[in-house]
From TrEMBL:
<keyword id="KW-0540">Nuclease</keyword>
<dbReference type="GO" id="GO:0004519">
    <property type="term" value="F:endonuclease activity"/>
</dbReference>
<dbReference type="GO" id="GO:0016020">
    <property type="term" value="C:membrane"/>
</dbReference>
<keyword id="KW-0255">Endonuclease</keyword>
<dbReference type="GO" id="GO:0004527">
    <property type="term" value="F:exonuclease activity"/>
</dbReference>
<keyword id="KW-0378">Hydrolase</keyword>
<feature type="domain" description="Endonuclease/exonuclease/phosphatase">
    <location>
        <begin position="32"/>
        <end position="245"/>
    </location>
</feature>
<dbReference type="InterPro" id="IPR036691">
    <property type="entry name" value="Endo/exonu/phosph_ase_sf"/>
</dbReference>
<dbReference type="InterPro" id="IPR051916">
    <property type="entry name" value="GPI-anchor_lipid_remodeler"/>
</dbReference>
<dbReference type="Pfam" id="PF03372">
    <property type="entry name" value="Exo_endo_phos"/>
</dbReference>
<dbReference type="InterPro" id="IPR005135">
    <property type="entry name" value="Endo/exonuclease/phosphatase"/>
</dbReference>
<protein>
    <submittedName>
        <fullName>Metal-dependent hydrolase, endonuclease/exonuclease/phosphatase family</fullName>
    </submittedName>
</protein>
<keyword id="KW-0269">Exonuclease</keyword>
<dbReference type="GO" id="GO:0006506">
    <property type="term" value="P:GPI anchor biosynthetic process"/>
</dbReference>
Amino acid sequence: MTIASAPATLKILTVNTHKGFTFFNRRFILHELRDAIRATHADIVFLQEVLGAHEVHALRLAGWPSVSQYEFLADSIWDDFAYGRNAVYPHGHHGNALLSKFPITHYDNLDISVGKHEKRGMLHCVLRPPHSGMDIHVVCVHLGLHERHRSSQLALLCGLLKDEIPPEAPLVVAGDFNDWRLRGQKTLMRSSGLKEVFAECHGQVSRTFPARFPLLRLDRIYVRNMAHFRPVALASRPWMHLSDHAPLAAEVTL
């Protein structure tokens, strides 16, 4: 087997960062969140609700980073990162971000907002791991709270997967789907060829919200064209104190 064709195993992490605050915004914990993300040794990190800037917080909060939250989280561990700005307000903006230990050769943020009051996006990146001989497509997702909005957004996601991503390319789609009734899960299984890692291995998608006592199955990791994949268990501590969503992790083999 040549180096270019040798299988590569990658670790994936997805987490809704809740803008660097605990549940109910009681405490700023971005530094603790960075430590927890580092401890997973993930190769690719999908982030939702990450702040690109916030002028008021920067002035009022001790320890607020001098760079964007996604740059602060990437630090010296993840050499490449991409940010998709979704929501813009007078003091700043937030959106989805991707941290990668591999070069990001291309990225594009797709606005999937329905109406004016809830801004959402999908961040599509193309990664090129050294010696793999192939590109990996990844899509970081944060869908809306209303089911009618999610239905439209899932249609846009399926269109992206069909029209913009080569059918043979390795693909990971991860993030916060807000799909507690699992209707989106059925749609994606039916039309996109995706496999949800936890559903395939454990029989159902994982409960992730609220993080302290997870009841709702909101967050997902989907894959396509992977030789192998498996969920990775994460300890409940310290994660239950770092966001309102529990993170998900998986290993995938190209």
